[in-house]
């Protein structure tokens, strides 16, 4: 009886110890990424892309251009409406150019086409870069004020500039270096793809609200980028790889990378060459959160370690003070 | 009850060549800051989407608060380990810490792009406990308040000597009450830096492969909090030599005793650093990382040399230089984690601070030194020099 109980306690202790250590030691890779069945995403097929940049053009038009029927004049003269947007009009914005010549993602575009070209082998391919809408996004984990959030239903990573403090920790935390900051503006904000869910201007409907899909997918003439539910897109990607042997690298980038992303890539050229980072099958954010929550384990919303530390320090300090006061009195009188 | 007899004002005039020079640097920095608020961060800095954090965070916050850990390290020594022995040193350390933290907070306000939303930290519905930044921000703000409370007695003592009976009455009313409660505030002043100094390391953990493997580790929080302690002690030794020299006071020999604790912390830090590198299989990387190896060894060699020199119980002058060496070594570590070891990818130009950007940092350092000098001359901050034959 006694021995069984001891064994049980021992087992329980080992179990508890292991459970406590698991979050630190176990890799998140042990668990397949879990996606909500309704989560949406995009599938980009590099072999279909012709590099026409229609997506870049339409993205800029959809996200940054003022609506034809928006009351522009009134906006310009009202200090309250869109004062933020109008005050900081850049040269491009002022000229209403729909086309900007940028070499990489920055505040002027949420989406860009880049080309990989190896002159020796003649191998070349296009790649479209934008937010990957990760399963466990670094930016969401990093943001101290919930300005970056992942929609639980759609899986879209959205940005709320009303909450953003501009600390740019999201830029630091993103393994794909996606969030861009309006460096030249005194009242700057973060710019990143939100699958066309939000307009740059408060009083303007977003592209998604009007056309129910992101502008880039709508615009692509080659259907190289398509919008849909992530599960369907993954199935489609795998079907294409299986049906066209030799046409693709046998991997769907984003299926497991960084704990899974809602945007998926398939390509003939190695993903590294396309500039996609070589990432583990877990999100750095998951690891960071585990580290943080291991240090700050909470019981009933009270972080244990700091409270215990404070209690210990206060007790020792008070004891020392009592001793000192006693000595002081003894010494002086 | 007569604690303030432990402290005296620093001798000297308020307006000297040094203070005027410092004030001019501060003015220049504030001009740049005004420019930043009108035209944005981009035009004055070399920051980019790849390198969103520059010298303001790496130096002013990460390193600045570690240099401001004198109060923290000394509080541990004084109130926890050896029952008030170094109490006379604590006030000047607290003043330095207060300035360090307040200015770190100020430089964050310069750095953040949407400062008008910063009130979000006080809106519970926006709290994001997964974010390391959230924890750092709240702890640093709380600790700055704690430091101001810890500093308050010396100000109140001054007010108590005022002629106005109302002001001196209020001060005399608050002082004993504050004195009683102070120990609990001091305990909080030891807990909070332990929390946020470790988290300053955790901040970079989320960057994953963007931080060089020589620095990217789950041990970042432990390394950072130990490093803060190390820099805290070193800066106390450094500052007491400097104030002895600058204020033409006799050298505070307690500083040499405090210096004896530095090697203990340093050896612990080095042990954690190397065990971590060995566990993560980065032994070869120590030698093969080129540019990064240079900074890695600069950091290690400075700390090891300083440790060896401290073990030999140096005199006042040697202790000053050794403490300076330790500050550089420990500082290199922090700068490496925030800037040197950080590489977002080849498509960005490697970050190096622009002149106006550095100007702001210099200005804040100047403001810190200026504030320290002025307060030391106005209020009773420094330990009372030992009268001959008193000990």
Task: Give a description of the structure.
The complex is a heterodimer of chains A (333) and B (391). In chain A, 38% of the residues lie in helices and 13% in strands. Chain A is α+β, with helices and mostly antiparallel strands and 333 residues long. In chain A, a hairpin with a 2-residue loop joins β10 (298-299) and β11 (302-303). Chain B is built from 13 helices and 2 strands; from the N terminus they run βαααααααααααααβ. By secondary structure, chain B is mainly α. Chain B has a single domain (3-383), classed as Formate dehydrogenase/DMSO reductase domain (Formate dehydrogenase/DMSO reductase fold, Up-down Bundle), CATH 1.20.1630. The longest helix of chain B is centred in the middle third of the chain and has 38 residues, at 165-202. The two termini of chain B are 20 Å apart. In chain B, α3 (70-81) crosses α7 (220-246). Helix content of chain B is 67%, strand content 1%. At the A-B interface, α6, α7, β6, α11 and α12 of A face α1, α5 and α6 of B.
List the helices and strands and how they pair.
The complex is a heterodimer of chains A (333) and B (391).
Chain A: H1 2-25, E1 40-45, H2 54-64, H3 72-77, H4 83-87, H5 91-95, E2 112-118, E3 123-129, H6 138-142, E4 148-150, E5 157-159, H7 169-173, E6 180-181, E7 190-191, H8 207-211, H9 215-219, E8 225-229, H10 230-243, E9 263-266, H11 284-295, E10 298-299, E11 302-303, H12 304-332
Parallel strand pairs in A: 1-9
Antiparallel strand pairs in A: 1-8, 2-3, 4-5, 6-7, 10-11
Chain B: E1 7-8, H1 17-39, H2 55-67, H3 70-81, H4 90-111, H5 132-160, H6 165-202, H7 220-246, H8 254-259, H9 262-279, H10 285-288, H11 291-311, H12 316-340, H13 355-378, E2 382-383
Antiparallel strand pairs in B: 1-2
Helix pairs in contact in B: 1-13, 2-4, 2-12, 2-13, 3-4, 3-6, 3-7, 4-5, 4-13, 5-6, 6-7, 7-9, 7-12, 9-11, 11-12
- Spell out the helices and strands of chain B N to C: EHHHHHHHHHHHHHE
Widest beta sheet: strand line-up of chain A: 8-1-9
- The total strand number of chain B stands at 2
Q: What is the total number of structural domains of chain B?
A: 1
């Amino acid at each position: 009886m006694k021995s069984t109980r001891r064994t049980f306690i021992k087992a329980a202790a080992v179990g508890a110890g292991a459970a406590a250590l698991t979050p630190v030691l176990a890799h998140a890779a042990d668990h397949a990424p879990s996606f909500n069945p309704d989560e949406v995403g995009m599938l980009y097929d590099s072999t279909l892309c012709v590099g026409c940049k229609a997506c870049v053009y339409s993205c800029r038009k959809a996200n940054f251009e003022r609506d034809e029927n928006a009351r522009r004049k009134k906006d310009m003269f009202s200090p309250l409406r869109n004062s933020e947007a109008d005050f900081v009009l850049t040269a491009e914005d002022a000229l209403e150019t729909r086309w900007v010549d940028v070499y990489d993602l920055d505040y002027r575009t949420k989406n860009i086409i880049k080309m990989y070209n190896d002159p020796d082998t003649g191998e070349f391919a296009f790649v479209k870069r934008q937010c990957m809408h990760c399963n466990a996004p670094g930016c969401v984990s990093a943001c101290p004020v919930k300005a970056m959030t992942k929609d639980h239903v759609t899986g879209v990573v959205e940005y709320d500039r009303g909450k953003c403090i501009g600390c740019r920790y999201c830029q630091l935390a993103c393994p794909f270096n996606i969030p861009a900051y309006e460096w030249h503006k005194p009242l700057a904000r973060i710019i990143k793809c939100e699958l066309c869910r939000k307009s740059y201007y408060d009083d303007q409907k977003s592209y998604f609200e009007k056309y129910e899909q992101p502008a880039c997918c709508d615009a692509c003439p080659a259907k190289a980028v398509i919008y849909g539910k992530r599960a369907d897109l993954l199935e489609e990607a795998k079907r294409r790889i299986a049906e066209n042997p030799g046409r693709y690298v046998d991997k769907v980038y984003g299926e497991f990378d960084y704990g899974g992303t809602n945007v998926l890539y398939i390509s003939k050229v190695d993903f590294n060459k396309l500039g996609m980072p070589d990432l583990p099958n877990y999100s750095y954010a998951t690891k960071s959160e585990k580290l943080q929550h291991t240090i700050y384990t909470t019981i009933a919303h009270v972080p244990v370690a700091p409270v215990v530390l404070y209690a210990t320090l206060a007790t020792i300090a008070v004891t020392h003070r009592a001793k000192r006061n006693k000595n002081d009195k003894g010494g002086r009188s | 009850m007569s604690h303030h007899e432990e402290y005296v004002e620093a001798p000297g005039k308020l307006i000297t060549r040094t203070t005027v020079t410092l004030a001019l640097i501060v003015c220049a920095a504030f001009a740049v800051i005004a420019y930043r608020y009108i035209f944005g961060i981009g035009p004055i800095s070399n920051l980019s989407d790849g390198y969103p954090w520059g010298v303001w965070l790496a130096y002013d916050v990460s390193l600045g608060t570690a240099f401001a850990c004198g109060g923290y390290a000394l509080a541990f020594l004084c109130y926890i380990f050896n029952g008030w022995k170094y109490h006379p040193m604590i006030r000047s350390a607290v003043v330095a810490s207060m300035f360090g933290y307040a200015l770190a907070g100020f430089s964050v306000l310069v750095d953040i792009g949407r400062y008008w939303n910063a009130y979000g930290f006080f809106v519970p519905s926006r709290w994001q406990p997964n974010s390391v930044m959230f924890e750092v921000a709240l702890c640093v703000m709380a600790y700055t308040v704690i430091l101001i409370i810890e500093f308050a007695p010396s100000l109140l003592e001054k007010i108590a000597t005022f002629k106005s009976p109302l002001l001196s009455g209020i001060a005399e009313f608050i002082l004993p009450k504050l004195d009683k409660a102070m120990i609990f505030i001091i305990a909080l002043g030891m807990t909070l830096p332990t929390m946020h100094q470790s988290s300053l390391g955790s901040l970079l953990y989320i960057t994953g492969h963007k931080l060089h493997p020589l620095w990217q580790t789950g041990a970042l929080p432990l390394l950072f909090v130990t490093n803060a302690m190390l820099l805290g002690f070193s800066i106390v030794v450094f500052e007491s030599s400097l104030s002895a020299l600058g204020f033409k006071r006799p050298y505070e020999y307690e500083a040499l005793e405090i210096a004896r604790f530095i090697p203990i912390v340093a050896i612990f830090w080095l042990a954690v650093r190397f065990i971590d590198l060995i566990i993560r299989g980065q032994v070869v990387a120590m030698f093969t990382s080129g540019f990064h190896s240079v900074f890695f060894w600069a950091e290690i060699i400075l700390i090891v040399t300083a440790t060896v020199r401290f073990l030999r119980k140096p005199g006042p002058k040697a202790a000053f230089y050794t403490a300076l060496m330790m500050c550089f070594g420990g500082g290199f570590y922090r700068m490496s984690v925030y800037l040197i070891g950080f590489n977002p990818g080849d498509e960005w130009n490697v970050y190096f601070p622009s002149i106006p950007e550095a100007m702001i940092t210099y200005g804040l350092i100047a403001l810190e030194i200026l504030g320290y000098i002025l307060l030391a001359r106005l209020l009773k901050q420094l330990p009372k020099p030992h009268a001959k034959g008193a000990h």
